[in-house]
Amino acid sequence: MQRCKTSIRRVGVLVLAVWLTGCASTGNPKDPLEGFNRAMFAFNEGLDTVLIKPVAKGYDAALPAPVKTGVTNFFGNVADLFIGVNNFLQGKPQEAVGDWGRVLINTTIGLLGLFDVATELGLEKHEEDFGQTFGRWGAPPGAYVVWPFFGPRTLRDTVGLILDVKTDPIANIGDIRTRNSLLALRIIDQRADMLPADRVIEEAALDKYAYVRDGYLARRRHLVFDGNPPREAENGE
Amino acid sequence: MRRVAERIVGERVTMRVVSFFLTLWAVPFFVWAQAPMPDALVRDVTQEVLEIVKKDKDIQSGHTKKTLELVETKILPHFDFLRMTRLALGREAKNATPEQLSRLSEEFRTLLVRTYSKALSEYREQKIVVKPLVVKPEDTEVRVRSEIHQSGGKPVTLDYYLEKKPEGWKVFDVEVAGVSLVTNYRSTFAEEIRAGGIEGLIRSLAAKNRASAETKAK
User: Fold this and answer.
1) Distance between CA atoms of A182 and A78, rounded to whole angstroms?
2) Which domain holds residue B5?
3) What is the pTM of this model?
4) pLDDT of res. B218
5) Cβ–Cβ contact B119 with A under 8 A
6) A236 and B151: CB-CB below 8 Å?
């Protein structure tokens, strides 16, 4: 509990610092912290280029597809537990029960989650987190922030992220070595899954920072409304 | 002998009459086939294109010219690039002359074609399911939903927005996982216009297209 309080305070200080840095920038009302964000984006891109992407590419090339799918399934199964909690908090008990049913089936018949048997049986996988739950409850997204290491978030999703990390079963594993190995594997697995999308974004974007930002904001809006957001005005007014 | 011959001729005449009526009867179906329902259109084009991609090792390994040709001949005829360009411009659209709009849509088209081709070359056996849609006769704009199913994850949504035009249903927006491939450019376009006007934006797009073409040529 003490540890929890300290880290929340630390994030609070960081949010404040971002707020103050951001005051200098102009322009996009959704992105008042653009100056700070662009710097952090550049930092994350650099880290990705020299470390994470090369490792993910090696991983992607070295392992056969069924193994990679197994790894993705394993972490997906761990995540389903709190996806269910979030669906429950969002007032969707049916979906929540489906998510927990998935965990039950995949952990047992699916051999500790390596096989996604539940999808085959018709139990659809969902994507939920605390940021979406707050959105569902009516919390506005707030300013867009790019965090070092964690990447794009809004202020609302930043608070969500803190809870996501707190409740993450992998991050709470007692044995430090196992925990760190699994965290690293998950980062590489998720990054490897992003490689195709990444290549498309490189082809599409005039300004990668803005493309990723607007894509992130649209994506989150889409997720909060579970795929049915009201369509925005055509002329942008 | 003669009788037999007469009967054969008679049968031929009957057949001709029957086939004439058959043709008449089939006309409405033919017309209907010319202007398919939007969901059927998306389904057919998707299926046709993916069949080609699956069989073609060159496209899978990123052979750009072949992929560009595929997109150009099979997909583009169903897209309305002028409307896409206006959609991407948002409120800036009214500041562009028709001539600028046409040049802009040319460059924007090239960019979207490259993006689409890239996405196709990343295609690996995922299953795309186009959901059926009930279209009322008075509908002029519809959203056709589809899903990309892949192992180890939640299906990715892929939605097409189509407008009914005299020449058939035309796509004016594509949304991948809730992100529009068109409006996602809006703030970048606005930024470019603020810095260098519509002409500046056209120049930037042209430069981006040239740079992509050169990287591919290597």
Assistant:
1) 12
2) 1-34
3) 0.82
4) 45
5) yes
6) no
